[in-house]
Amino acid sequence: MDETRFTSLAQASVALGCWRADYNDGRPQPQLG
Prior knowledge:
The chain is mainly α and 33 residues long. The chain has one helix at residues 9-26. This is Transposase.
């Protein structure tokens, strides 16, 4: 997303929502402790 240009706030919101879901749910979480 470093170079992504959005044409509207709605487009940015959808793209960031997808990125957030992938970041939170799609990546393995490191074990603490």
